[in-house]
Design brief:
Elements: H1 8-17, E1 22-28, H2 32-49, E2 55-61, H3 68-74, E3 92-98, H4 105-118, E4 123-126, H5 136-147, E5 153-159, H6 166-180, E6 182-183, E7 192-195, H7 196-203, H8 211-227, E8 232-239, H9 251-268, H10 270-273, E9 280-281, E10 283-285, H11 300-313, H12 315-334, H13 345-360, H14 366-371, H15 374-388, H16 393-409, H17 411-420
Parallel strand pairs: 1-2, 1-4, 2-3, 5-8, 6-9, 8-10
Antiparallel strand pairs: 4-7, 5-7
Helix pairs in contact: 2-3, 2-5, 4-7, 4-8, 6-9, 6-16, 8-9, 11-12, 11-15, 12-13, 13-16, 13-17
């Protein structure tokens, strides 16, 4: 496959660098406010934990107009002794450039994979550009399992507020775990380590003109690594604190992006996931400790109103996808008072499996189909928030574990319906 996304000036810079052991990619779009901190944390991590390795920081930018790339070029650690470091043997190179291709994170990642291949990197890391909680230790925890442990893919493991990451908690984690049999807690975390070998494998896949290039890259990277038998681990990174995304703002488009990518991957890997039953833990690195978390405010009344509106407006669609029996169950929920609202996990599991089957059968255009899931998802999320409002973090996590087991125990329902369709 040819390098078609790297500009001549980038190739020239790569030619001067020659080769590298470690690549750290930071995709960005208008992140001037936060990216300086991320670059300095990365530099400190490389200097402290990998002083004798050749390292390159790559900022693959989506055409920022706020000076993001200038911040990257100017960000540096003035005083290495402040991070208890006397000297660094190998210099750290920096490259910042606008990527080409479909606008989106996947196209930014593709450029990073291509640079990793060109420089014959052994280990790669990608981190989000809006992270406020990144520390130098993240670089050690994402790189070392690859360089020293022989792992190909290192997913992040964070402590998050119990009401943060609800799409992951109620759909992506239980579904990915039940399908592919690995307990990767944050399959769409945004901060990953991976081997140069896996980066090269990603480049062989013909997805760069698809939705993966726009927004499905995180779940695609995780699933592709697991489904193709690469060696998987996760590293505990502490808290994930980044520019807050309002859970109510443009939720249906985020849900569509993530769920359509997961369902698309089910099509391609059906022969891999249909025989798998149960799940197993993956190797976990890092010292797990309790962290202070930013509170997430949620308006359950608004969520339940949208759920009930869905009952009125999407009745025919839901009957078609869920069948009459499960639709009656959903309808019964609509009559409950807010304070008593509870979405059973068995019903929710069947809802997600029925949507996966409807996607497989092309019952509706993909976007129309998955956006009709939004009110059901809001109902399930409101139910979890009401149940967990007085719970400690570990108790809320135990509820998510119950949901995962429900997905695993009901997998025959999915497989049987899938094979019949």
């Amino acid at each position: 496959m040819n390098d078609i996304t790297l500009r001549p000036d980038v190739h020239e810079q790569l030619g001067k660098i020659g080769d590298a052991d470690i690549i750290v990619g930071i995709p960005s779009f208008n992140n001037a406010r936060t990216i300086g901190h991320v670059v300095r944390a990365v530099q400190a991590g490389l200097a402290k934990y990998f002083p004798s390795h050749r390292a390159v920081i790559v900022n693959s930018d989506g055409g920022s107009s706020d000076g993001t790339t200038e911040v990257v070029q100017n960000a540096s650690i003035e005083d290495f002794s402040a991070i208890l470091l006397h000297h660094r043997v190998e210099p750290i190179s920096k490259i910042a450039f606008p990527y080409s291709g479909i606008p989106g994170k996947g196209s930014a990642f593709r450029s990073i994979f291509e640079i990793a291949r060109t420089l014959d990197a052994k280990a790669c890391v990608v981190v989000d550009s809006d992270l406020r909680s990144i520390t130098p230790e993240w670089i050690e925890l994402l790189v070392k399992p690859v360089l020293i442990g022989g792992f190909d893919y290192v997913a992040p493991l964070y402590h998050r507020h119990k009401f943060d990451g609800t799409i992951t908690n109620s759909i992506v984690y239980p579904l990915t775990r039940a399908l592919y049999g690995k307990r990767v807690r944050q399959p769409i975390g945004g901060d990953f380590g991976f081997s140069g070998r896996l980066a090269q494998f990603y480049l062989t896949k013909d997805v760069w003109q698809s939705d993966v290039a726009r927004f499905g890259i995180d779940i695609w990277m995780t699933t592709t690594a697991i489904a193709n038998g690469f060696k998987i681990a996760q590293s505990f990174l502490g808290a994930k604190i980044h520019d807050a995304k309002d859970p109510g703002a443009d939720l249906s488009s985020m849900l569509y992006q993530v769920v359509s990518a997961a369902f698309d991957l089910m099509e391609g890997y059906a022969n891999t996931w249909t025989p798998i039953r149960g799940s197993e833990p993956v190797t976990t690195f890092g010292f797990e400790y309790t962290v202070g978390l930013e509170h997430v405010n949620v308006n359950t009344a608004r969520m339940l109103n949208l759920f009930r509106e869905g009952l009125k407006n999407l009745r025919e669609v839901w009957v078609e996808i869920l069948g009459a029996g499960d639709f009656r169950e959903v309808e019964r929920l609509g009559a409950l008072a807010d304070s008593e609202f509870s979405f059973p996990i068995g019903l929710w599991t069947r809802v997600i499996y029925d949507y996966a089957i409807a996607f497989h059968q092309k019952k509706l255009p993909a976007e129309h189909l998955i956006k009709s899931l939004t009110p059901l998802y809001l109902g399930k999320t409101a139910s979890f928030i009401l149940a967990a409002k007085d719970m400690e973090g570990h108790e809320a996590e135990a509820e998510i574990e119950k949901l995962c087991m429900e997905f695993e125990n009901n997998k025959d329902y999915l497989v049987t319906s899938w094979k019949q369709s």
